[in-house]
Amino acid sequence: MRIIRDYQYVEQQDRGATVAIGNFDGVHRGHQSVIELARQAAPGAPLGVMTFEPHPRAFFAPDAPAFRLMSAEARAHRLEKVGVEKLYQLNFNQALSSLSPRAFAQQVIADGLGLVHVVVGADFCFGKGRKGTVEDLKAFGAEMGFGVSVAPLMEYSEETVSSTAIRRALSDGRPRDAAAMLGHWHRMEGEVIGGEQRGRTMGFPTANQSIDGLHRPAFGVYAVLVDVLDGPHAGSYHGAASVGIRPMFDGDHPNIETFLFDFTGNLYGATLSVGLVDYLRPEMKFDGLDALMAQMQADCDQAREILSQL
Length: 310
Fold this sequence. Notes:
six-stranded antiparallel β-sheet, Rossmann fold, 14 strands, six-stranded parallel β-sheet, alpha/beta
C-alpha cells in the first residue's frame, strides 16, 4: 500500500483512484462498507482511502482528552488488510481546514488527486466549518467530473455503528460489543517499552506499551489476542493484559501490560498489537503480593479458558 500525504504534489501513478473518504478511526464495519462501495464503484481503478492526519478533532482541540481508537500506523495496517492500495493520508493543517467545500472538491479531489470516484457515508460533511453536505458533493462531482456514491449508515443492536458508539462500549468494559461494531477485535498497537520488571519477579513477565493518545478502555484485566508484528518472535499468541494505572504500586500513568502465555524471549522494541477479547475484572489493590499473584494466576486461567473457545 502506498501512502500519499500531499494532494498538491502527486505522482501520476497515484492519480485516477476510486476513494472512500473519512477519518476511519477504528476502521469499523461502517467504514468497511464505504470502502467496499468504493471497490465496486469503478472496476479497474486503484482502491484508495482519503483520511487526515492529525485527526481534525485533535487539530481543533489539541488539549481535549485522548479519543482515538487507533494510531495512524495501526489504521494504515488495518486499511492494508482490507485491500486498500492507496492511502491518501493528507496533512491536516490550517490551509486544508480553511478550504471551502467547493475549493476542497476542486483543489483536492478533482485537480490535486484526479480521483475518478469518491464514496462517503450518509452523514459526511466537508470543507471549512463542515458546511459541505453530501448533496453539495454530488453537485460538485457532476460539475468537475468525478462520480459520487453514498453509503447508508449501519446499525448494531438499534445503535448506529460509529466510532463514538465503539468508544462507549470500550469505556463500559464491553469489548465484544465493540468488536461486533468494528468487525474485528479492538486492538492497541505500539512498541514494547521498558517497565519496572515487577511482573518478572512474580513469574508473570509483561510487555509494556504506552496508550498515550488513545481512547482508554475500562481499566482492568482482559483476555487478549496478541500479534507480535516484527522481530524474531513475530507471530500470534494468547495472553492476559492489564490496562490502567497499577493501583497496587501507586501508579498514576495509564499503560497496558501484557503477559503472553507459553512465551519466552525478549520483546523490547518489538511492535505488539493487543486485541481485547473479554473484560475479566476491574483494577484493584490487594493485601500483599501473595494475594496479587494468586489473582493473576486465576486471571490467566480464566483467560486461557475463554481464548480456547475462539
